[in-house]
Design brief:
Blueprint lengths: L15 E4 L4 E2 L5 E2 L2 E8 L10 E7 L10 E7 L5 E7 L7 E14 L3 E2 L5 H30 L5 H21 L8 H22 L26 H11 L6 H12 L5
Length: 265
């Protein structure tokens, strides 16, 4: 989704996909046959260097309003013209997850279109709902890690305990069904910011020792990744990703204001 210059503004994407002359248009408006030719660049694409297929959001109608001219394509990573460049995070040079991805005259079969042509915004909205559910569940686990690894007699630790409990109770209510999907923004915002605040407090509690890096600050778990028990400095630094991925905290606040609280835009 993300592109240089667009950031979290999915509607601002510029990667183009043009249907070549091999395609036809039915009376219903649906495309049939042919290939899309894709040109553009993405960034922050997690795991692209390991992926077989990329779910790629592209602009197929540049004349349409920003939200209405987007489509979604499945692009195999071994397709000619696809270049993936993983880059390191601030935590370590060998911490490779994010990628730049470049598309140069990439030919993608018409049948790789996901959903209707120019209706990619609805596909994106559906994927965000699933992503934010996955995120709050992950945030709940990270809060449990902090409760285990950063015991303290300071007031912030009591807040951490309450935030963890509140996140799970609100989340379980959402999983029960019948709730407005916009409420997932409450979970995403609460979980990501609670982790960031608690991680900073844990780091400050430990003083200069908290800056020792690399370091192990929790018990190893074969079902988890080492990043979650790394140095307190790294745990705090990585907490910023949670307030950006899946829609920034600012975006979540806008959704909550408009769609949960009913405030004007």
């Amino acid at each position: 989704m993300s592109e240089p210059g667009a950031g979290s503004d999915l509607a601002g994407l510029r990667t183009r996909a043009v249907l070549d002359d091999g395609g036809t248009v039915r009376s219903s408006g649906a495309e049939s046959g042919g290939h899309f030719v894709v040109n553009g660049q993405k960034v922050w694409t997690s795991g692209a260097h390991d992926a077989d297929v990329l779910l790629t959001f592209v602009r197929t109608d540049p004349a349409a309003p920003k939200h209405k001219g987007i489509s979604v394509l499945l692009i195999p990573t071994d397709t000619e013209g696809v270049v993936r460049r993983p880059f390191a995070s601030m935590a370590a040079q060998d911490d490779l997850d994010f990628n730049e991805v470049f598309f140069t005259d990439v030919r993608v079969p018409r049948e790789n279109l996901v959903g209707p042509l120019n209706k990619g915004w609805s596909v994106a909205h559906g994927s965000f709902v699933h992503e934010r559910t996955m995120l709050w569940l992950s945030f709940a686990e990270r809060l449990d890690d902090l409760i285990r690894d950063a015991p303290s007699d300071e007031e912030w630790y009591a807040t951490l305990l309450m935030d963890a409990q509140a996140l799970r109770l609100l989340g379980y209510r959402q999983l029960g069904g019948g709730r407005d999907p916009a409420e997932l923004s409450v979970l995403k915002l609460l979980g990501s910011e609670a982790i960031q605040v608690a991680s900073l407090n844990a780091l400050e509690d430990r003083g200069p020792e908290g800056l020792v890096h690399p370091e192990v600050t929790g018990p190893p778990n074969h079902m988890s990744i080492d990043n979650f028990i790394s140095s307190w400095f790294e745990r705090y630094a990585r907490s910023f990703a949670g307030t950006i991925a899946g829609g920034t905290s600012e975006i979540q606040r806008n959704i909550i204001a408009e769609r949960v609280l009913g405030l004007p835009r």
